[in-house]
Design goal:
Layout lengths: L10 H13 L4 H14 L11 H17 L3 H13 L3 H9 L1 H11 L2 H14 L15 H4 L4 H20 L3 E4 L2 E4 L8 H19 L3
Helix pairs in contact: 2-3, 3-4, 5-6, 6-7, 7-9
């Protein structure tokens, strides 16, 4: 046996290497990921957890890591995305807890629904990154960079917000193509009037506090 630098390895050293390899067997998570990968290869149902979305997330991420080693992401992609979609509302609740982690996974799975849901939460917080699992530099620059997709969406959002704020200061609002009086006496706009009053109260307090 020789090493990379062509130095011979003695029998004792070789035995020590073998013992070290045997002392660190693959983790159960890795074994399960390989099992899931093989099941997909043979067109059998995955063994992804169907009850706990957080456990399913960990399992899917493990399968993605293993599949990436063998260039098999396109093969496992539809199976893993389908396994996650079965969670319904729980999936969207989980995305809310850690959007960047789910966003990164959505890029591997090419999952539009997961990508959009994660993107909404990240865009709404852009400028503030409260998540520790995945950082902005882990994403492509055309996504999270200064001129990336998310920053462009933030700029669009600012324009929309300014338009809504301007509307709240007005005494009328467009209702089904007609101008309606924004007042508690108008049944068509009373709900909007309440919203406008709450917003103006908050705005006045924010200005007073110089926020």
């Amino acid at each position: 046996v020789t090493t990379d630098n062509n130095q011979e390895v003695t029998a004792e050293e070789n035995q020590a290497i073998n013992q070290e390899d045997q002392a660190t067997p693959p983790k159960a998570e890795v074994l399960a990921a390989y099992k899931c990968l093989f099941r997909i290869f043979y067109r059998k149902p995955t063994n992804i957890d169907t009850n706990d979305i957080n456990e399913a997330l960990r399992q899917v991420e493990a399968v993605v890591r293993v599949a990436e080693l063998y260039g098999s992401i396109p093969v496992v992609r539809p199976h893993l995305a389908n396994s996650l979609s079965q969670f319904g509302r729980d999936l969207y609740a989980a995305i809310l807890q850690d959007p960047p982690r789910w966003l990164q996974l959505s890029l591997y799975l090419e999952s539009g629904p997961i990508f959009k849901e994660a993107a909404v939460h990240i865009i709404g917080n852009l400028g503030h990154w409260p998540w520790s699992t995945v950082q902005p530099h882990d994403f492509p620059k055309d996504l999270v960079g200064p001129n990336g997709l998310f920053q462009r969406k933030v700029n669009e959002l600012k324009i929309l917000m300014a338009d809504v704020e301007r509307t709240f200061f007005m005494t009328s609002i467009n209702v089904e193509g007609e101008e309606g009086l924004l007042a508690p006496t108008d049944k068509r706009t009373i709900n909007t009037w309440y919203v406008a009053q709450l917003w103006m109260q908050w705005f006045s307090q924010a200005v007073t506090k110089d926020e």
